[in-house]
TrEMBL record:
Family: Belongs to the glutamate synthase family.
Gene label: LOC106820525
UniProt cross-references to SUPFAM superfamilies, sorted A to Z: FMN-linked oxidoreductases
Entry superkingdom: Eukaryota
Name the UniProt record assigns to this protein: Glutamate synthase [NADPH] large chain-like
Residues annotated as domain Glutamate synthase: 61-202
Length: 202
């Protein structure tokens, strides 16, 4: 975008965004909140809510409603509740909380020749899981993501904290361990980041 090219040269961005005018308007709005006469800010400024849910903060796809529905659906193995969760998430498109909600699909006039379409086998190689640490989810979830990615030719990311050595050691027959994460994340001084761990990365 023009803003990035002029003021943040070299920064990667794949979408258009705001410009100087919008940044100025936002700065003025923040100043008015801090020094204006709004009753809600008389004693302290709003903590915001860009990253964590706040009552008066920005809207998020993950909020008390969606999280509660997902937890109840999973714990009770309830398809109906999962359907309610899915509907809440899908409706975020209409609330402009996702990039896809800002897009309007334009259908092609004619079908694309199938030989011009990349094969599924090639597309899935670029799939990757988020860098969720082993400690933040569970051994079962973490290793299952690795197995799934290895099966489709994608790449799982260990996240901070490393990966148990047993998962990247080859199997008895010499084949690759299906629980091995291809991407090894490095966080300085974190447990699990060893030379052995590093050499077992793709």
């Amino acid at each position: 975008t023009k803003l990035v090219d002029e003021y943040f040269k070299g920064t990667a961005t794949s979408i258009e965004g705001i410009g100087i005018k919008e940044l100025a308007e936002e700065s003025v709005r923040w100043h008015e909140d801090a020094f204006g006469d709004k009753q809600v800010y008389k004693k302290h400024l709003d903590v915001g809510g860009d990253y964590a849910y706040r009552i008066r903060g920005e809207s998020h796809v993950w909020n008390p409603n969606t999280i509660a529905k997902l937890q109840h659906a999973v714990r009770a193995n309830n398809a109906k509740t999962f359907g309610e969760f899915s509907q809440l998430v899908d409706e975020q498109n209409e609330n402009l909380l996702t990039l896809r909600g800002l897009m309007e699909l334009k259908l092609a006039d004619k079908a694309l020749p199938i030989d011009e379409v990349e094969s599924v086998a090639e597309i899935v190689k670029r799939f990757s899981t988020g860098a969720m640490s082993f400690g933040s989810i569970s051994y079962e979830a973490h290793s299952t993501l690795a197995v799934a990615m290895n099966q489709i030719g994608g790449k799982s990311n260990t996240g901070e904290g490393g990966e148990e050595a047993s998962r990247f050691m080859p199997l008895a027959d010499g084949s690759m361990n299906p629980e091995r994460s291809a991407i090894k994340q490095i966080a300085s001084g974190r447990f699990g980041v060893t030379a052995e761990y590093l050499v077992n990365a793709d």
